[in-house]
Write a structure and sequence with these properties.
Helix content is 57%, strand content 8%. By secondary structure, the chain is α/β, with parallel strands linked by helices. The protein folds into two domains: 279 residues, no CATH class; 129 residues, Pyruvate Kinase, Chain: A, domain 1 (3-Layer(aba) Sandwich), CATH 3.40.1380. The N and C termini lie far apart (71 Å).
Length: 514
């Protein structure tokens, strides 16, 4: 498949790697942890560091079984190394981005040569979806990194005639992908298998050995699940019902969209490069390709099949989020890079100015966005950061905070001992079902942290202490309604903060914040 004679110099590679590293690192910890995802994963990782129990993920005192533990382990390790802060929380996503670029460059080099590899890394590192998710704590970018390395190791095995040692390395990376997010790891692998069959790549099929690879991944990825099932047999329905079948047929989180959802997502996510690549494809005649399917598929290559199969699978699934397709982003970048290299890049013109202008323009635009976002981090509704709330409520000394909505990240900033949640009973039940906690295992280990409040009861709390009431302004109902009208309040983005005291179990108005 190698058809690119021009070899970028090592200086060009070093400049590319350094530039992308600095771009991804730029102000990584400048904004607070966004809810709910960053708050959730940071909360669980912080609990692991404090408790010393790294095997069973726990959030706010409850077991959380939505994901296998590798994303929590890497976040907790970053907290141990660099402290509990926003930069450390996002270090796993930064690591995943670097791994994804490495795997992409590795696979592209072996399949198409150094020229295409260089452009593929540039296109991927400066695409909208990749840049954004490299700066958000979720499992998706780390998953993309392991999957890309798995495909890179497969390309190496193919290059070496199906060498078993490189197959074993590929198996290791796919297993780590499974330990990061389980079944979504199989989506790009399924696309690779389909691509090898459709393109007639016998050497690639021999190197992959997929009838052996798939069961090996399942066996090596099962210990944590088997351990949890042994400890909590009730999780059987949770794992196979809510988490497996539910995401295909109608997930409890309600993440639904039309069958064309990911078409719209892709048109934004893979900017700014796809219009240029589409024009390139038109110029070289791919848009007017041969009438038979096999030549078209060969032009798309295995990377095109990975993208198409992945989009089909995610489109058929009921649960939809724009983060899911980041595992496909490196292979979309490789497809786009091939189109660019076929038209714009030649031995006489290896570094066309227009394409570099696109990359530099994106970097400038992205850097401006990164610097501006902290100004709005508390005004993003349910995706807000609670950092400003934490600073305001603790500015005059530590106080306990009572919130009328569950915010996972608030405990990361204040510690669980200073955070309580108060809600009308039906709203708290909604949070129980949305925590990733099986209802039959929702056993409260510390009742003072979660308070169910009947809708018309007066607000009564145990203890005698200075407190803050934190009201989410986008929430219609609140047990704090009377105090929001009468108390001295402070605004912090989408939140209203009211200082108060608890006397004889009843909340009373406080006239000053001192």
């Amino acid at each position: 498949m190698n058809n690119a004679p021009h070899t970028p110099s090592w200086r060009a590679w070093w400049l590319l790697c350094a530039g992308l590293f600095l771009l991804l690192m730029f102000a990584l910890g400048s904004r607070g942890l966004n809810e709910p995802d960053e708050g959730r994963y940071a909360n669980i990782a912080r609990t692991m560091v404090v408790s010393g129990d790294w095997w069973e993920p726990r959030m706010s005192g409850y077991g959380h079984y939505d994901k296998p533990p590798l994303i929590y382990w890497t976040t907790a390790a970053a907290f141990r190394l660099f402290g509990i802060n926003e930069w450390s929380a996002r270090a796993p996503s930064l690591l995943g981005a670097l791994l994804a670029l490495t795997g992409l460059g590795w696979a592209a080099w072996r399949l198409y040569g150094p020229r295409v590899a260089w452009w593929a890394v540039l296109v991927c590192g400066t695409s909208v979806q990749f840049f954004i998710l490299a700066r958000i704590l979720t499992p998706d970018m780390l998953l993309a990194g392991w999957c890309a390395l798995g495909i890179g190791a497969w390309a190496e095995a193919r290059h070496r005639g199906g060498a078993w040692n490189w197959w074993a390395v590929s198996l290791l990376f796919w297993t780590l992908a499974w330990w990061t997010k389980a079944t979504p790891a199989l989506v790009p692998l399924a696309g690779l298998v389909v691509g090898l069959w459709l393109t007639g790549d016998g050497a690639g099929r021999h190197a992959l050995r997929w009838p052996l690879l798939f069961p090996a991944i399942l066996v090596l990825g099962s210990p944590w699940y088997l351990s949890m099932l042994h400890t909590y047999p009730e999780l059987r329905g949770f794992f196979f019902g809510r988490e497996l079948a539910g995401r295909m047929t109608g997930h409890v989180d309600g993440r639904r969209g039309s069958p064309f959802y990911y078409l719209g997502v892709s048109l934004v996510a893979w900017l700014p490069w796809w219009p240029l690549a589409a024009w390139s494809a038109w110029k070289i005649g791919v848009a007017r390709a041969e009438r038979t399917a096999r030549p078209i598929l060969r032009k798309l290559g295995v990377e095109g099949c990975i993208v198409l199969v992945g989009l089909v699978i995610f489109s058929l699934a009921s649960s939809k989020l724009p983060t899911y397709t980041v595992t496909l982003a490196p292979w979309a970048a490789l497809l786009l890079a091939r189109a660019i290299c076929a038209t714009w890049v030649t031995d006489a013109r290896p570094w066309p100015r227009a394409q570099h202008g696109v990359a530099i323009g994106f970097a400038i635009f992205a850097a401006i966005g990164v610097m501006l976002l902290p100004r709005f981090e508390s005004s993003l509704k349910v995706n807000s950061s609670l950092r400003e709330v934490a600073r305001e409520t603790q500015s005059n000394g530590p106080r306990v905070v009572f919130a009328d909505r569950y915010w996972q990240g608030l405990e990361v900033y204040l510690g669980p001992e200073r955070v309580r949640y108060v809600a009308a009973d039906e709203r708290l039940r909604e949070r129980k079902s949305d925590l990733g906690i099986p209802p039959e295992l929702f056993l409260n280990p510390h009742d003072d942290a979660w308070r169910e409040l009947p809708a018309n009861d007066p607000l009564r709390l145990n203890g005698a202490q200075e407190i803050w009431l934190v009201h989410f302004l986008k929430q219609e109902r609140s047990p704090f309604a009377d105090w929001l009208k009468s108390g001295q309040s402070t605004r912090a983005g989408d939140f209203e903060l009211v200082p108060a005291r608890v006397e004889n179990g009843v909340v009373v108005k406080e006239h000053s914040q001192g």
